[in-house]
Write a structure and sequence with these properties.
It is built from 21 helices and seven strands. The protein has 467 residues and is of the alpha/beta class. It folds into three domains: 164 residues, Tetratricopeptide repeat domain (Serine Threonine Protein Phosphatase 5, Tetratricopeptide repeat, Alpha Horseshoe); 167 residues, 3-Layer(aba) Sandwich (Rossmann fold); 70 residues, Helicase, Ruva Protein, domain 3 (Orthogonal Bundle), CATH 1.10.8. Helix 1 packs antiparallel against helix 2, helix 4 packs parallel to helix 6 and helix 18 crosses helix 19.
C-alpha cells in the first residue's frame, strides 16, 4: 500500500465522517487501481452527501476503468441533469464518448467543459482528440450540438464559443504538446518576500490593466519582457504563476520539449505558434523556464541550426510577427551568462531582475505559507527563519517535507495526528544544507570577472563584494 493511501486510511479511522478525506482516499485508491476500495470509499461519500458531486463522479470513474462505460455514462448524465455546468462531469462524459468511438460528441463536451472552466484540461483527452480536430479544421464550419442549462440540447451558431476559432484554449495548446492554458488562482499574497520583483511586475502588466487610461496617456503598453535570474528554487516559476493570478490572465508555461523539433524549420514554427496563442488569449503571461536553452549566445553556436531559432525568438519578442500588447513574457534562468546579449536589448527582456534567496523576513513569510493546511502546534516562523540563512524557498519546503515524514511516522505508530512544532523544523534544518551555495560559487566568478555594464552588480551586492 502506498504511503499516501495508508496515511489517508489511518486518518479516516479517526474521522470516518470526514467527506473531503473520503474523497481524497477514494482518489488515492483509484490512482493505485484499488477499485474495490475506491468504490467503497465513494459509496460512503454518496451516503454522507447524497446530492454531492465528488462521490457520484468517483463511482462513474470506477465504472469506466472497469470497462462499464454504459453504467458510467448513466451516472454522469444523471449528475449533469442536476449540475449542467459541472466541468469535471463534462470532461468525464467526454472521455466516455471517446472510449466508445464517438469523437465528435467527445470534442463537443470537452470544448464546453473548457468554456465553463479552462482549468479542467485533460492531457489524455487532448491527445485523443488532436487528430479529430485537425480533420475538422479542414471542413467548412457547421452547427454543433451542446448542453444548455438544464441539460437540453442546443445548436451552436457561427459565434458559438465552442468553435475553435472563437476559443483558442485547449486544442491549439495541446497541438504544441502543452498542458493547456490555465488561469492560476495563486496571488502575490501567497508568495513570500520578493517585494521589489512584485513591484516591477505590477508596473509591467498589473497597473496598466487597472489604470488603462493613465498608461495610455503616456503611451505605455501592457506587457513586455522581464528576465528573472538567480539560484534555483527561489521562486521564479512561482512568481510567474502568481502574476497571472493577480490579473486573472491566462498562463502558458514553455519548456524545451514544446519548442525544439528534429526537423529543420519546425522549431521556429513552434516558437511562432506559441506567441500567436498568447496574443489570441491576451492578457496572457508567457513563461519560458530555463530560457538560456532557447536564447543561447550565438557566438557559441556558430553554424548550428539553433541560430535560426534564436533569431525567430528575437523577432517574436520585437512583435515583428504580431502585436504583443497584453502579453507579458517572463524568462527564468539559473545561468544568465549563457544568454545572447541581444535578448537584453530594450523592447525585449528590457528588465533583468535578480531573484536572490529570501531574506529572514521573507523566509518567515514563506514558512507561514508552507504551514497552511498542515497540522501545526507551537510553530514560530521567525525562529526557524533565523536558523536557516541562505535557504531558498525550495529548501524551506524540503524542511517541511523532512519534518512531515517524521511526524507521519510518529502518527502511524501512535494512531493520532502529530502536529508540527518549531523543534521539528529545526531538527530537519540540521539534516538539510542550503542548495544555493553551489550557484553562488559559479555566479561569483562571472560577477567579478565578466560584469560588463554592471549586469551582475546585484549579485556582488548580495555577496557583500560591491565596490
Amino acid at each position: 500500500m502506498s504511503s499516501k493511501r495508508e496515511g489517508l486510511r489511518l486518518a479516516l479511522e479517526h474521522s470516518p465522517q470526514n467527506a473531503p478525506l473520503l474523497a481524497l482516499y477514494g482518489q488515492a485508491c483509484l490512482d493505485d487501481f484499488q477499485l474495490a476500495d475506491a468504490r467503497a470509499a465513494f459509496e460512503r461519500l454518496v451516503q454522507l452527501e447524497p446530492g454531492g458531486v465528488e462521490g457520484r463522479l468517483g463511482l462513474a470513474r470506477v465504472n469506466l476503468i472497469e470497462g462499464k462505460s454504459s453504467e458510467a455514462a448513466v451516472r454522469v448524465e444523471q449528475l449533469l441533469q442536476q449540475h449542467p455546468r459541472c466541468a469535471p462531469a463534462l470532461v468525464l462524459l467526454s472521455r466516455i464518448h471517446a472510449a466508445e468511438g464517438d469523437l465528435a460528441k467527445a470534442s463537443e463536451l470537452y470544448a464546453l467543459a473548457l468554456q465553463i472552466d479552462p482549468s479542467h484540461t485533460d492531457p489524455g483527452m487532448e491527445k485523443a482528440l488532436r487528430e479529430f480536430r485537425s480533420k475538422s479544421k479542414a471542413e467548412p464550419p457547421r452547427q454543433r450540438a451542446g448542453l444548455a442549462q438544464g441539460g437540453e440540447s442546443v445548436e451552436a451558431s457561427e459565434d458559438d464559443p465552442l468553435e475553435e476559432d472563437h476559443a483558442p484554449l485547449g486544442g491549439d495548446a495541446f497541438d504544441l504538446g502543452l498542458d493547456g492554458m490555465e488561469r492560476p488562482k495563486l496571488s502575490f499574497s501567497e508568495v513570500g518576500g520578493m517585494d521589489a520583483l512584485k513591484e516591477e511586475i505590477r508596473m509591467k502588466i498589473i497597473y496598466p490593466l487597472q489604470h488603462a487610461g493613465l498608461f495610455k496617456a503616456y503611451d505605455k503598453k501592457i506587457g513586455g519582457g522581464v528576465l528573472l535570474y538567480g539560484p534555483p528554487g527561489c521562486g521564479k516559476t512561482l512568481i510567474s504563476k502568481a502574476t497571472a493570478g493577480e490579473v486573472q490572465a491566462r498562463f502558458l508555461a514553455l519548456g524545451l520539449h514544446q519548442i525544439l523539433d528534429m526537423w529543420i524549420g519546425n522549431s521556429e514554427k513552434h516558437m511562432h505558434a506559441v506567441f500567436e496563442l498568447a496574443r489570441k488569449n491576451a492578457p496572457c503571461v508567457l513563461f519560458f523556464d530555463e530560457v538560456d536553452a532557447l536564447a543561447a549566445d550565438r557566438k557559441d553556436l556558430r553554424q548550428s541550426a539553433g541560430r535560426t531559432l534564436i533569431n525567430q525568438f528575437l523577432a517574436e519578442l520585437d512583435g515583428a510577427e504580431g502585436n504583443n500588447d497584453g502579453v507579458l513574457i517572463l524568462g527564468a534562468t539559473n545561468a544568465p551568462w549563457h544568454i545572447d546579449p541581444a535578448f537584453r536589448r530594450p523592447g525585449r527582456f528590457d528588465r533583468t531582475v535578480f531573484v536572490p534567496p529570501p531574506d529572514e523576513a521573507a523566509r518567515a513569510s514563506i514558512i507561514q505559507v508552507l504551514a497552511r493546511g498542515k497540522p501545526v502546534g507551537e510553530l514560530d516562523p521567525r525562529i526557524i527563519a533565523k536558523k536557516c540563512p541562505e535557504y531558498s524557498g525550495a529548501d524551506l519546503k524540503a524542511l517541511f517535507d523532512l519534518a512531515t515524514e517524521e511526524a507521519l511516522a510518529s502518527a502511524m505508530k501512535s494512531g493520532n495526528i502529530v502536529p508540527l512544532v518549531t523543534k521539528d523544523l529545526l531538527k530537519a534544518a540540521g539534516r538539510h544544507k542550503p542548495t544555493t551555495r553551489a550557484w553562488f560559487e559559479s555566479a561569483k566568478n562571472y560577477a567579478l570577472f565578466a560584469n560588463q555594464g554592471g549586469y551582475y552588480d546585484e549579485v556582488l551586492k548580495y555577496l557583500g563584494l560591491a565596490p
